[in-house]
């Protein structure tokens, strides 16, 4: 692949241009741009691909492509023959102007110059990125932040309270993850196994920590064992901090174009059009500080409270006992500071916020590291009489986390219901409760992953059985809810299968009516009907997630109650009167523990395959790309947001090209690319936005984003986008499981949606299709003749000299009468 040198803009150039705009030269650029004229009917089609990734050669249908701007991560490509298309068009215009008008040859091109924006490297890469799947609970809780219902004012107290609840739920997930690491390293390995002679003998790498095996060595005291083992969860916390900081620098540090909100945008419902929407540096840095400090405080508390409890119970030296009380008070004070940092500020979107918080906030992790170091010294103080028996008291910690998460989800549901009642929309998923449901699933994922890892490590250490007590009772009870939850999921899958059969019968009749003049082919008809029926199952997702979330909440509450009952009445007294219940609980716990281990292995295996196998990536790509599309607003350790790089890329390209040439531009997006295209269009200045035509196909803008994220892609936002851009057309198929219509009202304007495209293009063999035409579904929209037809109509709508007749009744085939062309921005 060829590469054009000298065209890729550097970060310094971007910063210089942004500085110029901030200093007021943006107005001068607008004046200069208004003096330019289109260069000989110049038109540009900026193609944005969807999930799964592709190559510029495939997008441009040419093996010779040239990178004209960008880097190895994301770039814009052209065909080699189109590199100087604007210059050639300008020369042709000057040459034609010198000739007689009657004899002037038609030298301008009728097709637009295609450009391909390739962003797949932002979400795919080598197999090491499969480790990002371990951050799945953080990504899911971040999604819940963006799923709030639509409101008229983004600054309402209820909206802020909604965001606060989600941020607090994200904080509990961080504490849960670090607490699970402490459970494995401190309790199971250093406390129970190293303190038990039989377990330590089976694992020689723990021999130097065992009093019996090492003959009371320096490390054999419980406090020193805990201090050494605490380095594992502390290192995990530091790794999360490093990944969050590194991914921010690599993905999200690109600043959007600096601009102020214009008067006509004041009442806009489009949150994605706010100047600071795609630059959340301040909030991410603030949350990263708070979550890092919370993780380190969790480690310090796990070590320090164990030593302080021993000093209080055994009546140790008064100085140590007093210092332990001081440490406990410091842990509480640190937790209060972390909560204050998380609660004090949310996202700032109305301006491009380049500031950072005060030094007190930024130095919070340093203070936590210092406190951890002091705690390790305190725990490592010599206590010869201290012996490790039973297990560390982790039931209270995990029980408190589970209870707080349940209360936060319930409160989130109440707030979401209040917001939905203010502006109800029947198309909104789960009547506005999608955010609380997804938050519940995030907490459940965190609980399953923490409990699964703890249970697997306990089984591995306790090879012969009975050598250690194992993880806390609550984690064991959480494993017991997996079998009934899977049973509910199987029932839902059966319901979906039944719905598919019924829908296939309906679609079979519809296909027969659509092709009644064709020779009947039962096999072909059933196949088309089956694809249509399977594609419609996407619209059943809200019910599946809603039922799963409710069942998860109920089972989680039962597990918490069961764990508390077991703690209050341990041993045979807990279940002696109910042997059937006891047997069922033990069976469910054993089966759940096994399922957690198998599921965790499959989770990592399939995650790695998804990044190495393109077909597997296409299968789950839509879920992953939807999750990482949104900025990190609730959890700083979530996977990075690729849109904070992709949207500024597209915005800079569109604004720069229209300002330099004054030509026509069609923004063409497929699947997830249509979401990026819409987000980029919202970020443009209104004067530039009115010079852009939007062509979407296989788009989830309304079907997925509009229903699940109504505050940003609801009807009001999409209607506003339709009115702001010059023209917009949307293509979809009944066989597409992802894309769908926009369902926007006409109201005198041309409707966005074209009638559903025919798929397959031919039912049987024809002269144009002598071989059986494939069922395309979500792919290859450009192969349909309707694509070129709609693109030509958009170009004609943008052409200054094209004045089509008014369209009667808002029919979908004709462009509307053009507006007066605004000056270039």
Automatic annotation (TrEMBL):
- Is Membrane included in the keywords of this UniProt record? yes
For bias kind Acidic residues, which ranges apply? 15-28
Annotated Basic and acidic residues bias: 29-39, 96-110
Q: Does the keyword Ribosomal protein apply?
A: no
Q: Where is this region: Disordered?
A: 1-42, 81-110, 797-825
Q: Which UniProt keywords apply?
A: Membrane, Transmembrane, Transmembrane helix
Transmembrane ranges, per UniProt, are 130-147, 159-181, 226-243, 289-310, 322-342, 363-381, 401-420, 432-454, 474-497, 544-565, 588-607
Q: Which domain of life is it from?
A: Bacteria
**InterPro entries (alphabetical):** AB_hydrolase_fold
State the name under which the record lists this protein: Integral membrane protein
Q: Which organism is it from?
A: Streptomyces aurantiacus
